[in-house]
Amino acid sequence: MAEAGGGEVAAPANSQDLTIFVQSLLEQMQSRFTQMSDQIIGRIDEMGGRIDDLEKSITDLMDQAGVDPVASAGGTTTWPAAGSAAAVMSRAF
Rounded to two decimals, what is the model's pTM? Predict the structure, then answer.
């Protein structure tokens, strides 16, 4: 029987060996799943930080251009359409 890592594993001789083999295999799978989950969560956190930095940069640029955010009915902040921002920026420079 071949192991996932490429090494050879002896076939279990009885039910107790089979139980130990399956338990070991499940533990390896759980460990790999945990590692992958941690990597995915780390990447999502990193992406969230980058998005926050991007939002801050956009806000700074909009402030420099003199464009104010527009408050929507839901209480969230939205930005004017790209055309209006371009118009403001062209007048500013």
Answer: 0.52
